[in-house]
Amino acid sequence: MNALAARRRHPAAIAILLLLGLALVGAAYSLLAPKPAQAAAPSAAAAATAEDAALGRQLFLANCATCHGLSAEGTKSGPTLIGVGAASVDFQVGTGRMPLAGPNVQAPRIEQVKYTEEQIAALAAYVASLAPGPAIPEGKEVTGETGNVALGGEIYRVNCAMCHNFAGSGGALTRGKYAPSLYGVEGKYVYEAMLTGPQSMPVFNDTNITPEGKASVIAYLNATMNQPNVGGMNLGNLGPVSEGMFIWIFGLLLMIACAFWLGQKAA
Amino acid sequence: MSTTASGRTAADLRADDTAAAAPTGNGRVAATAGWVDERTGLAKGTAYLMKKIFPDHWSFMLGEIAMYSMIICLLTGVFLSFWFVPSAGLIPYAGSYLPLQGVVMSEAYSSTLAISFDVRGGLLIRQIHHWAALMFCVAITVHMLRVFLTGAFRKPRELNWVIGTILSMLAIVEGFAGYSLPDDLLSGTGIRAAEGFIRSIPLIGSYTSYLLFGGAFPGEAIIPRLYSLHVLLLPAVLIGLFTAHIVLVFLHKHTQFPGPGRTNENVVGYPFMPVYTAKAGGFFFMVFGVLTLISALVTINPIWAYGPYDPSPVTAGAQPDWYMGFADGALRLLPGFLEFELFGFTWSMNVFLGAVALIPVIYTVAGAYPFIEAWVTGDKREHHLLDRPRNAPVRTGLGMAAFSFYVVLMLAAGNDIMAIKLSLSINDITVLFRLLVFVVPVLVFWVTKRICLSLQRHDREKVLHGRESGTIIRTADGKFFERHEDLDEFDRFKLVAFEAPAPIALEALTDANGVDAKAIKKAKRRARLSSFYFKDRVEPVSPAELAAAHHHGEHESISGGSTHAAIKHDKHND
Ligand code: HEM
Fold first, then answer.
1. H helices of chain A, where?
2. Residues A109, A113, A117, A122: is their CA dihedral positive or negative?
3. Is A4 in CB contact (< 8 Å) with chain B?
4. Which of these, A101, B52, B109, B569, could form a disulfide with B183 (CB 3.0-4.6 Å)?
């Protein structure tokens, strides 16, 4: 009798079969990927040198045109970049989102950025030369030095927490889209994200949140994210779900271990 | 003491002896005890308590974990109440947490920040309080499961089960009230949600909300009111019911698992004093220690990060504490079309059913279960011996199914966290959970019952043919089989000491011509339920069967090499 047949009536067999079934269903399910999201294009003014734009055009044709079209007019697989401005390019390429590897629900942030700063500047200059759009922000506002932390907190809670979570740990949006974690995001990209509203994120233009306000948000994020964890491990700052999991798994386990140990002790 | 030698009794003499042997302490303790007894008559009761016997089993300590967590909550709660200000009055924050300095917030929030940052040891105590509250609810849940799965709720303990269900429901209400107090963004969102739930109550919803909040949301009244509930009313009721619960445990005596020498009439274990008090006292400190350790290492509810409540913002990941998760999950799963208009009113059944109606319904069903089972089985006897869960396959199946239903709802409350952590679509997860909530309990019931039955069969095999020794014997004609060792009597007893009731038969009724149609219908319904419970059963090994098996065994060992025996042993090994 082979080993499998010998154990087919083992009490655990059903449980194992069930687990296998569940794993299969899970795998099949994760293959059915949802569809990508649309993004809105903002507009403002920007300028760049001609050589930069020329170099940028070359890079663009080689790396981006397949999706965004030969003159950035957009195709089925990528939106038009006319009028998105240098800020949008700097954000998208600088955070590793572009060039997109392939169709996805949402372009993920990738730590390994594909281009040097000069190349990114060139790409930005090229896109900015197509039509006016928001320029790459610079100076004190971007680092948050001029911001007011308390004010930034209020702006953050009203405008950002519903998607990015109270501590900036990120949150789920519909159909597989998500607001990413804001941990470790450079001030410049926070500013650009507000300015250009990537994908499902709304645009926060300067009348919505003033440049001082934006600087304050950055100051607030810097302040909270650099706070020591006064209460101990923060379990990912995900709220009560992770706390509940922790107490069920570790709390209960420790308690039962104690009870068991005490029960084994003779009187 | 009498002065004449002749007047001294033997007892007097001995009294002197002990006093001399243990000069100070003992005498004083005895004297104090005597003094108290003369004025209160407590000695008899204390002696009764001290001699109470408790059986040992780790699962009997789950209730104790709940008890100690509750006591820890009470102790730390007193500490918190020294500094907490239950007021919605607004003030600018001037404490030592930098990112909030200057922000205008309620006194409740500001004082909670003060406890966390400016009161010595405050944050640790806050975290112990909250972790202990979570542990309390976890312990209640597992305690309840253990009581259910072992059949400890049967006569005469049905009432204590009912008290238990009420305790468990009050515990989550108490927890929710506490969670709502600090007035940070999370708790404020929780109160906002609760207000929505109240409004979804048909007809009286909006009036009730106005009554509770003292006007429109949020108002100034809700925090002081919740505070009264959280520190006064609910703890008083909890302690009262808990005392009744424990008194009943003492009166009924604790149940025990079947075993040699353990009968329905006795309790085998250690006396309360000194063994059990030492163990229980030690256990209290272990529970306290574990909770303190957790609280010192792991943040819970970082209210400073949430920021003050304000009705306009919400945060992603706004969830209730886990024990309210099942209601939140039900709410997330209910489809929107359940809201409709009729007679000029809006009926928000999509909210009401999950967030309001579910809790009392679940607890009513739980509380009624002992009576339902007693009716189906027609069992009117007292039970002081527990069932091993496998020996009541349908009950165990039902318990696990109910628990799995609860767990699916609870997990559904984390659908957004799952979506980001597993990179899935929240819509798909919700649809999946809508399916699971119906499928999983049925599946769990079936699987659990099957597992129980096969464990029972396994027990039977073990009793009849002994345990597998691991020794392989090769017979003269080249066949192999494994030698089985007989169980000793003690082990065997544990495997055969149970009942496997047969379903109630219907014949009894049909020949009773006089009964009316209604009674027959009722009896038929009962017979159907009885067959649901007991149709699949594995009987315990009877002494006759055991004797036969032994006889067979001897025969086997003589002609061990016969084909017959080899086949039989093959079968055991599969
Ligand atoms: C405030 C929460 C509760 C506390 C502090 C508590 C505490 C205890 C303790 C210390 C015991 C004796 C040890 C044990 O068997 O674990 C006990 C027994 C018992 N509890 Fe609870 N309990 C609570 C909630 C519940 C709940 C929710 C139920 C069920 C609905 C329940 C039903 C019972 C029953 C039937 C017994 C007797 C068990 C037996 O004798 O085997 N209790 N409880």
1. 3-6, 11-31, 50-63, 65-68, 85-94, 117-130, 140-143, 149-159, 161-164, 187-196, 211-225, 240-246, 252-264
2. negative
3. no
4. B109
Tell me the pLDDT tens digit for each residue of B223-269. 999 999 999 999 999 999 999 999 999 888 888 888 777 877 777 77
Q: Which residues of A touch B138 (CB under 8 A)?
A: 247-248, 251-252
Q: Is any Cβ of chain B less than 8 angstroms from the Cβ of A19?
A: no
Read off the pTM: 0.79
Query: The dihedral of CA B441, B442, B444, B449: what is its sign?
Result: positive
Angle at B152 between CA B148 and CA B154, to 5 degrees: 100
**Residue written as tokens 């019911």?**
B241
Name the residue among B356, B364, B361 with its Cα closest to residue B208.
B356
Report whether residue B140 contacts ligand 1, using a CB cutoff of 6 Å. yes
Instruction: Note whether A166 contacts B287, CB cutoff 8 Å.
Output: no
Distances B227 to B177, B181, B236, B344, B570 between C-alpha atoms, Å: 7, 7, 13, 37, 68
What are the structural domains, with CATH classification, of chain B? 1-15+23-51 (no CATH), 58-387 (1.20.810.10), 451-569 (no CATH)
Q: What is the rounded distance in angstroms from the CA atom of residue B151 to the CA atom of residue B388? A: 8
Q: What is the DSSP letter of B298?
A: B
Angle, CA of B196, B234 and B198, to the nearest 5°: 10
Q: What is the ipTM of this complex?
A: 0.82
A231 → closest Cβ in B57, B299, B325? B299
CB contacts under 8 A, B 41-60 vs A, are 56-59
- pLDDT tens digits, B460-519: 888 888 777 778 888 888 888 877 777 777 778 788 878 888 887 765 555 556 667 777
